[in-house]
Write a structure and sequence with these properties.
By secondary structure, this protein is of the alpha+beta class. It has 3 helices and 11 strands.
Length: 251
């Protein structure tokens, strides 16, 4: 009786090599992607106008008149505008990122009377230089650390319906966040970013583990099938079994 060798797709050796190479390539791709994410961190800026409120409130039932003065000058439409800027990227924004050395422009759409409050956090981050020019607050080029928050609270005089920010930053697309007045900036902390990175790494490792487990299970199945073929051949070739037994094995 002549036996034909099993086709290649029933070879346990073939599938062992195939899935070994596949798992190694998957691990290499995942490792390269994760390394790229950490080796080439994204630079990003988020900002928000957290407050834009009038200091005057005219009531139809009140006969009193409220006036706001600044340094003896009467303000006709006094408002307070709060602005927050956040370096949400994983790397610092350096002075070189400012295109042609241009300044960040915060246009209040109203005359800036005074900067009531300014802060920069954390304390270890350098405080940026800034100046008021007409309707604008100008932030000079300089280092903005990853995770740094810059905050301005300005007294303005005017309608200020459309305040806008201009960022002359190369390779960085600022994102404006929608926020309700008085709501603190919804900005991710460094710990949150690190947690996201760890979850990303864990998911990648889980994917590789699942793929390896599935590959191993399939290889074991193919090997078992291959062993059955060997046993069948031995039974068919042997004189120790009856023809009826051999027929049961499909000889």
């Amino acid at each position: 009786m002549t036996y034909i060798s099993a086709p290649w797709y029933q070879s346990s050796t073939f599938w062992t090599i195939f899935f070994g190479i596949f798992t190694a390539l998957l691990g290499a791709v995942a490792g390269a992607w994760i390394n790229n994410k950490f080796a080439n961190p994204k630079r990003a800026i988020k900002y928000s106008w957290t407050k834009n409120v009038s200091l005057l409130h005219t009531s139809g039932t009140s006969s009193s008149t409220l006036m706001v003065q600044h340094s003896g000058a009467l303000l006709s439409k006094p408002r307070v505008i709060d602005f927050a800027l956040f370096n949400s990227g994983k790397t610092d924004i350096t002075r070189d990122a400012f295109d042609n050395g241009d300044k960040i422009e915060l246009n209040m759409d109203a005359d800036v009377i005074e900067v009531l409050d300014f802060s920069s956090s954390p304390a270890t981050a350098p405080s940026p230089s800034w100046a008021v020019q007409g309707r604008q607050v100008l932030i000079s080029p300089g280092l903005i650390k990853s995770g740094q928050i810059i905050f301005f609270s300005c007294l303005v005089d005017g309608d200020a319906r459309n305040p806008a920010a201009r960022f002359p930053l190369v390779g960085i697309e600022p994102v404006e966040e929608d926020q309700h007045e008085g709501e603190p900036p919804r900005m991710p902390t460094r710990a949150r970013r690190q947690n996201r990175a760890m979850r990303l790494f864990a998911m990648s490792m889980l994917l590789i583990s699942i793929t390896s487990l599935a590959s191993s299970s399939f290889v074991l199945f193919v090997m078992a099938t291959d062993e059955m073929q060997v046993v069948k051949k031995e039974i068919c070739d042997s004189d120790l079994y009856s023809q009826r037994a051999k027929d049961g094995f499909g000889c």
